[in-house]
Amino acid sequence: MKEITQEVYLKWYEDMLFWRKFEDKLAAVYIQQKVRGFLHLYNGQEAVLAGSLHAMELGKDRMITAYRNHVQPIGMGVDPRKVMAELYGKVTGTSKGMGGSMHIFSKEHGFFGGHGIVGGQIPLGAGMAFADKYFKRDAVTLCYMGDGAVRQGSLHETFNLAMLWQLPVVFICENNGYAMGTSVERTAHTTDIYKLGLGYEMPCGAVDGMDPAVVAQEVYTAVERARSGGGPTFLEMKTYRYRGHSMSDAQHYRTKEEVEEYKKIDPITQVKEHLLENGFATKDEIKEIDRRVKSFVSECEKFAEESDYPPVEQLYNTVYEQQDYPFLPHKL
Ligand SMILES: Cc1ncc(C[n+]2csc(CCOP(=O)(O)OP(=O)(O)O)c2C)c(N)n1
Ligand SMILES: [Mg+2]
């Protein structure tokens, strides 16, 4: 694996802080009703993404995830201003404002969404890996899912075929403890989620998902296994989300104390402490990064605010239409 140097830690700090503040801004503008529909935030889970990105080959490998999907495309190189504009429903967004929060997508950057059907991306991720193997492309797919999604039957169909065909895919469960308001303990006999891989003899294991260095190492091993023809891996990232499931979650299912406990192992704080303790950055240098992050988030907000809504003619551009069917409303 590429060495985890001072530069990597500095990048992790700046990236993770940017993702956190970007989403804090989204929460603020959501309350002002500038962003509408559902909004699921990733706050707390950032180390899973930061570590994974270090283990991947950007420009070649692919990523697919569920609806908690605003910062992953940014990590893969999509312009954050376009992501913010998409959330605002503006024409300058990644899908011309027609996708919104749950459907960020950029084929160019290898980011394949953005899926609102729980577990829907699991077979799709395997399908992407199948295509890469079939066309002999040297790419690996990282397919993310929640602890709730692993209870979908399609996971089992996918795991079976992924092993049978030795597909170049890494399945990553982000176990944040809850599926909406329901804890893993309330719904599952096997609470060690990684063990679901055992039934298929898929290499699997649990990982500290709050430390990007640990994530990077484990994901790298899995990615290299996939790339060298060794087939899939299933990793369970032990992580936590600080905010509710979505913006409309009153969070009656957990205590404030529980959330505070997890904040003690916050990935951004951990990386900041690593930077300071190892003399990789001074307090002033950290302040400078914080300032840069804040200003870039404001720039994204301004870009989204000042962009136009899509023209009304765009409404039907992405809708399937049978040419000889006369009863579409815009044709009446
Ligand atoms: C097939 C399907 N069933 C139910 C829902 C409603 N739903 C949306 S998110 C969610 C919980 C998923 O939890 P998890 O997989 O742990 O992901 P997290 O939100 O924690 O990231 C449910 C049940 C849905 N979107 N799709
Ligand atoms: Mg969950």
Automatic annotation (TrEMBL):
<dbReference type="InterPro" id="IPR017597">
    <property type="entry name" value="Pyrv_DH_E1_asu_subgrp-y"/>
</dbReference>
<dbReference type="InterPro" id="IPR001017">
    <property type="entry name" value="DH_E1"/>
</dbReference>
<dbReference type="GO" id="GO:0004739">
    <property type="term" value="F:pyruvate dehydrogenase (acetyl-transferring) activity"/>
</dbReference>
<feature type="domain" description="Dehydrogenase E1 component">
    <location>
        <begin position="15"/>
        <end position="312"/>
    </location>
</feature>
<dbReference type="Pfam" id="PF00676">
    <property type="entry name" value="E1_dh"/>
</dbReference>
<comment type="function">
    <text>The pyruvate dehydrogenase complex catalyzes the overall conversion of pyruvate to acetyl-CoA and CO(2).</text>
</comment>
<dbReference type="InterPro" id="IPR029061">
    <property type="entry name" value="THDP-binding"/>
</dbReference>
<dbReference type="GO" id="GO:0006086">
    <property type="term" value="P:pyruvate decarboxylation to acetyl-CoA"/>
</dbReference>
<keyword id="KW-0670">Pyruvate</keyword>
<keyword id="KW-0786">Thiamine pyrophosphate</keyword>
<dbReference type="InterPro" id="IPR050642">
    <property type="entry name" value="PDH_E1_Alpha_Subunit"/>
</dbReference>
<protein>
    <recommendedName>
        <fullName>Pyruvate dehydrogenase E1 component subunit alpha</fullName>
        <ecNumber>1.2.4.1</ecNumber>
    </recommendedName>
</protein>
<keyword id="KW-0560">Oxidoreductase</keyword>
<comment type="subunit">
    <text>Heterodimer of an alpha and a beta chain.</text>
</comment>
